[in-house]
Amino acid sequence: MSFSRDDFEKALQQHSYEFSQGQLVRGKAFSYESDGALIDIGGKSSAFLPLQEASLSRTQPLTEVVPLGEEREFVIIREQNAEGQVTLSLRQLALNQLWDRLVAMQDTDETVRVRVSGTNRGGVTVDVDGLRGFIPRSHLIERENLDALVGKALTVTLLEVNPKAKKLVLSQRLASQAASLSQIAVGQLVDGKISSIRPFGVFVEFGGTSGLLHIKQISKNYVSSLDAVFQVGQSIRAVVIDLDDVKRRVSLSTQVLETYPGEMLENMAAVMAEAETRAQKLSISPSTPPE
Q1: In angstroms, rounded to a whole number, what is the distance separating the alpha carbons of residues 24 and 77?
Q2: Is residue 4 predicted with pLDDT exceeding 90?
Q3: Which of 44, 63, 64, 89 could form a cystine bridge with 77, CB 3.0-4.6 A?
Q4: How far is it, in rounded angstroms, from Cα 55 to Cα 52?
Q5: Enclosing H/E stretch for 63
Q6: 174-180 own/partner pairs: CB under 8 Å, 24+ apart
Q7: Which residue, among 199, 191, 196, has the nearest Cα to 279 in the 3D structure?
Q8: How open is the CA angle 205-210-216, to the nearest 5 degrees?
């Protein structure tokens, strides 16, 4: 049987070439243009891959990203124009995959390396493999001279990953705390400084993290006024009595270093001076911290 031109046109009409934005298609590059590449995706017209949509990296040559004749997957970012040509993207496909990876990483508390790209009053903006992220000032280790951070690489953990809103919030402080916690053990003596005084106890900063010295863990005797015993910035030595890796909490005690009830209140200098020797004699269980 002969296959006439009319038969060929009818066959084309019966075949669906409808493409929609967001659709994944497979295709092969067959020609390079000054501003992109022409891709055969099996439609009536060739598809177009703009140069700026070829890769997350703006420096990689187009010939390396889409070699001629090599089939790969693309995403449609613009539907057919008057000539039936759709616009493709590899960059958007890579960003979608990156969002999926970050969502999975948030569930496992993994850390990522980012580079600071700019600053604003609230914190710093960062580049995360081509995505724009934000680190609030309160979640930075260096909170004063933000301009000095521009261009620097930071290790961060993920606070909020919202692909729909394109919102990516990160924390350097929590990543640092997590790393520090991995180096801390119950029974360990730490040297730190008091960062704040609260009605229920004092917070002590040490080794990139902080711990709580609860008012009941200061001395075996009753402490009536924390302000009368401590001041912000004061150096202090304390023993780790409990760790909560999930909540990233460290519980401290100086009570366990006392040789008699009230020694921390009457002769703190002696307790601090002999802290290392006294701590070596302790045997502390994280499940039953001293009262």
Answers
A1: 10
A2: no
A3: 89
A4: 7
A5: helix 62-65
A6: 174/139, 174/248, 175/111, 176/141, 176/208, 176/209, 177/208, 177/209, 177/210, 177/248, 178/109, 178/111, 178/248, 179/111, 179/155, 179/208, 180/207, 180/208, 180/209
A7: 191
A8: 95
Dump strand ranges (E) for the chain.
Answer: 24-33, 36-40, 47-50, 71-78, 87-89, 111-120, 123-128, 131-136, 153-162, 167-171, 189-198, 201-206, 209-214, 235-244, 249-253
Separation CA 264–CA 93 (nearest Å) = 61
Structure tokens at 42: 């099996």
For the record, the structure tokens of 193 come out as: 């400084």
**Band (9; pLDDT cuts 50, 70, 90):** low
Domain with CATH 2.40.50.140 in the chain: 25-89, 106-177, 183-280
> pLDDT grade, residue 119 (50/70/90)?
very high
pLDDT reported for residue 5: 57
Please state which CATH class domain 183-280 belongs to. Answer: mainly beta
CATH superfamily of 106-177: Nucleic acid-binding proteins (2.40.50.140)
From the centroid of its chain, how far is CA 65?
A: 28
In angstroms, rounded to a whole number, what is the distance separating the alpha carbons of residues 101 and 129?
11
Backbone phi, then psi, for 70, in 5-degree steps?
-95, 120
The pTM of the full predicted model, rounded to 2 decimals, is 0.61
Q: Which residues of 132-164 are buried (b: 16+ CB within 10 A; e: fewer)?
A: ebbbbeebbeeeeebeebeeeebebbbbebeee
Return all residues near 240 (Cβ < 8 A) that are at least 6 apart.
184, 185, 186, 187, 188, 189, 190, 211, 250, 251, 252
